[in-house]
Amino acid sequence: MAETKAKLSSVDPVWSRVRDEAFEMVTAEPLLGGLVHSSVLHHPTLERALAYRFSLKLASGEMSEQILREIADEAYAAEAELGQAARADIMAVYDRDPACHRFIQPLLFFKGFQAVQAYRIGHWLWQQGRRDMAYFVQMRVSEVFGADIHPAARIGRGIMIDHAHSIVIGETAVVGDNVSMLHSVTLGGTGKEDGDRHPKIGNGVLIGAGAKVLGNITIGANSRIAAGSVVLMDVPACKTVAGVPARIVGDAGCDQPAVTMDQRLKDCDC
User: Fold this and answer.
1) Is 166-269 a CATH 3.40.350.10 domain?
2) Is 166-269 the same fold as 16-146?
3) CA distance 107 to 117
4) Record keywords: Repeat included (predicted)?
5) pLDDT value, residue 174
6) For the chain, which terminal residue's Cβ has fewer other Cβ atoms within 10 angstroms, N or C?
7) pLDDT 10s digits, 15-57
8) Contact by Cβ (8 Å): 111, 99
């Protein structure tokens, strides 16, 4: 048994740790046994567990859990990147959210993580030309998790969306790898224009609570956007912007602001 677990851990350490934590959770809180078994321990892989959670959360009188489960299983079987991105997202949440103490928490309890994984399936549907079904997924994600992410938007790996209330990410938005954002962030347009009209967020960017980034602008890698800011112009890499409208108030303060999650403004005259 120990040898089997060691082999599993070497192949998929994230899933192995999630399962170990699931056993610990059942021991500590037996009343959660049904939830933990159905959501984690019943499944052979993380992908199968994610598909189950997707179908359970998004099912409604309009779309059955069975149909959604089949869609999710198809997506994970066809696109290995979905599962790899989910693993990177779990690790991002664990590393950056001080309220996350175990790998299993995002999978079971954190709606920001769950909303991003559901978006990823919607994005896969969009890429397959199944756009009406992708819109359905977007609608249900918005209704269930309070995060409205257009399925055409492009979002990288290692994403942490803390709390996830009132997140809006528009159709032509691009979000790089290892980005962190807090609640009430909008990556939106500036009017009724069509075409490429939403922000492009570089790798490692930290976006504070309530920030609005509007228009087809570029936010440079490893920059910080202060809480409550309204960003209407390009931001160079490794800078901090704040205010309404936002302006540069200093350097980012570190190499990876999205990882450190330090949102304090230091040594600036803002």
Assistant:
1) no
2) no
3) 10
4) yes
5) 98
6) N
7) 999 999 999 999 999 999 999 999 999 999 999 999 999 999 9
8) no
Q: What is the CATH number of domain 16-146?
A: 1.10.3130.10
Domain ranges in the chain are 16-146, 166-269
Structure tokens at 35: 């939830």
Edge-to-edge strands of the sheet including 230-231? 147-149, 167-169, 186-188, 212-214, 230-231
pLDDT tens-digit map of 187-231:
999 988 889 999 999 999 999 999 999 999 999 999 999 999 999
| Helical residues (DSSP H) of 29-64, grouped into ranges | 33-36, 46-58
206, 263 Cβ separation under 8 angstroms? yes
* Residue given tokens 């409550």 in the structure block: 228
pTM above 0.90, yes or no: yes
Q: How far is CA 152 from CA 42, 120, 143, 207, in A?
A: 32, 10, 18, 21
